[in-house]
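Possible regression after last week's pipeline update?

I re-ran a chain I had predicted before the update to compare outputs. Posting the input and the new output here so someone can diff against the archived version. Not blocking, just want to make sure nothing changed silently.
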Amino acid sequence: MKQPKVVYENKWFDVVEINGQTGIKNKHMTVAVMPYDTDEYGMVKNIGLLHELNYFREGDYCDTLITGTVEYEDDSLLLTAKRELLEEGGFDVDENERWLFLGPIYPYKDGDKMIPVFAVDVTDKTQAEAEGDGSDKEKNSKLHMVDVREGISCDEGLVLAAFLRLFNFMYAKSMNYDVQ
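New output (post-update):
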């Protein structure tokens, strides 16, 4: 691979050019979390979408997954996911059997960012007020549990990819396939 030419840099990412193409090289690992609940048959009924302040979108908001940066004190990606779920979503879910690792997802093709994505079953869990991290972005964002049909009609690729992987897991489980 040819050495990238840095066009712009800050503490979070570099904008680079390689062979005439511009892209983004990230400097920090981020995780994503998709809370969901199930109906009486164990099928996904609702998914959690974070109505998040985003000045790059029409109307200054987008509906997306909870995301957060891995911090130094986090011992694992799962601990980061648990912290972010509490901070941004108001759910405190410590039980490991409720968590599924859905795998890594590259959210866009013009960058090297790979996001490890988790799903967490919040069925029968109480959603408290999100703690937030003190930023305006988190003060002005709120997690809503929405009907799965509404959730998958959003335009966020990360949401759609995560739901497809969760659906695949649930389908395999319902068909008694070997699920790992």
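Follow-up from reviewer: compared with the archived run. The CA atoms of residues 91 and 127 lie 5 Å apart. Marking as no regression found.
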